[in-house]
Amino acid sequence: MRSRTAGGWIVADRTVWVYAVGAGLDGAWLDGLRGVDGEAVRPVSAAGLTALVGAVDQEAFGVEQLRARLDDLDQLATIARAHHRVIRVAADHQAVAPARLATLYADFGRVRAMLVEHAAAFRAALRRVAGRHEWGVKIFAAPERGPGRPAERPASGTAYLRQRRDSLTARETALAAAGQVHADLAGTAVAARQRPPQDPNLSGDRRRMLLNATYLVDDAGGEAFAARVPAIAREHPDLAVELTGPWPPYSFAAVEEGERA
Amino acid sequence: MTVQSQTGTAAAAGIGGHEPANLGDILERVLDRGVVIVGDIRISLLDIELLTVKLRLLIASVDTARELGIDWWQHDPWLTSQARPAVEPGPAGYDEDRRAIEDRRRVDRG
Fold first, then answer.
1. CA distances (Å), A125 to each of A91, A132, A250, A257, in order?
2. Does B90 contact A at CB distance below 8 Å?
3. pTM of the predicted model, to two decimals?
């Protein structure tokens, strides 16, 4: 049931979850799109901008319950994937600035006020990412020895030191090579960012991660960028290079709270 | 080229090795990236900050990284929140954050 309030349209027992902001986001692709609560995703517009939002259960997405759910890795994963799916579908159709997980408003009127307040910053962010997507590249050190072959026990102190030195040299070489690959890819991208390496517990990959980077690439050059990665990988047999994407431009659509219209 | 969904473009471009996005890749994007606007439910942001610290420790294998001499994120303003003192990610910081969360929960419960 809907009622008119001073703040705008509110939906009883619902709170508003924001997925992304774009300019005039609308279209048939929105039909049937479901969000983090299984709710229909809908556009809310103001100041020439559109927020993609969903009216989610006020109780389940209230402070206490949401906090507990986000603290549970399985539930966090479900919510994060649902949030990401909406953003991905939207980014397939139009330029979007993805909202950070768990950005919630009391009603649609508050969302409109937010759009008006940050209009200039949103427009700047959308200009940066329009016609572009993000690609991810992770570089791992190729395993130093095959599985099932334990390290040889050094016969002496000197042998131990030599083994240790060789291992350090190999790491430094691999790191330097990873840095070269990054510089090379960054040179062909509009922008590049590095992130900390992922923990094996989360990535499920036991290899040592040397580079975890994202690149903002023009859609017209996306195919060439993606083809370049395996080509570069072939030049570095000591590295394992993994490409993901195209992603919505999560890493390049930042709008800081301080940035005001 | 028209960029389609993650797997769609990979297939279109004939690139192998694209699996559905893994959880770590998604979490580091939806928690640490994206538009940062303070919603009406203020506490969620504060808690997400703390949760992010926890996850960051899960995401960034700090000891391994240090061993390798990788420390660039310590200079990345995105990874040192404005909302709290720049805590160097590490077991000590984690304990402090966890204590802070537990303290606040006790207060919340009254």
1. 14, 12, 11, 13
2. no
3. 0.72
Name which of A135, A258, A137, A140 is nearest A206 in CA terms. A140
Pairing of the two strands A14-22 and A132-141: unpaired
Backbone angles phi, psi at B9, to 5 degrees: -70, -40
Residue B25's pLDDT is 85
Q: State how far the Cα of A28 lies from the Cα of A36, in Å rounded to an integer.
A: 20
For chain A positions 199-258, those within 8 Å of chain B (CB to CB) are 199-204, 208-210, 219-220, 222-223, 226-227, 230, 242-247, 250-251, 253-257
d(CA B25, CA A206): 16
User: Strand pairing of A239-247 and A132-141?
Assistant: antiparallel
pLDDT tens figures, B48-58: 554 555 555 44
pLDDT digits (tens, 9 = 90+) for A205-237: 778 889 999 999 999 999 999 999 999 988 988
Residues of chain A with pLDDT under 70: 1-11, 143-152, 199-204, 255-261
Tell whether A196 is within 8 A of chain B (Cβ). yes
